Amino acid sequence: MCGGFTCSKNALTALNILYIVVAFILIGVAVYGRASALVTNLPIIGGILACGVILILISILGLIGAVKHHQVLLFFYMFILFLLFLIQFSIACACLAVNTKQQEQLAEQGWRRVGDDLKAKVQTTFICCGFNSTSTFVDDQSPLSCKHVNEICCPYPTENDCMCPACMQKLQSTIDYAFKLCGSIGLFFSFTEVNFNK
């Protein structure tokens, strides 16, 4: 039977090692979500990434407090971990609550912020033209000309009205998947933080 400080010390050490693993998973999911979105600089995914980094730092604080039996460090560890739970829970709920229209608005803001080279890369990768409208990008002189992409969409030169779809149509499912994945995993791990601290 386990009792005394030795058992608590071992449990806290194991818990903090688990938190380090969880933090790396959160960072990995956020990086994957950002990479799969490719277009946008989605701030919610950045919040999940920040929570992962903060969780690593807090876990190191908890490890030091547990190994040295430092009660003040352990108190701040529990307090900061609870605050992290609140932040992580809020961000995860925001990821899951974002509807299609809000995702489109966030993606459009991200589209406006990125440079033309990334926009051209997105257009080539997803075989799309423009964000919501293709009409502004048909000019051959434009740095974001859809001429090359339209040749992929419409291999027959006789079709003059053939155009690739707008990029938002192609990116919607990818952006939605990134939000849902980050939200679900963030929600799961925020509850594991609370359950293990009881």
UniProtKB/TrEMBL annotation:
Transmembrane segments: 12-32, 44-67, 74-99
GO CC terms, sorted: membrane
Record bears the keyword Nucleotide-binding: no
Membrane topology: Multi-pass membrane protein
InterPro entries referenced in this protein's UniProt entry, alphabetically: Tetraspanin/Peripherin (IPR018499)
Keywords, comma-separated and alphabetical: Membrane, Transmembrane, Transmembrane helix
Protein name: Tetraspanin-31
The species this protein was found in: Dufourea novaeangliae
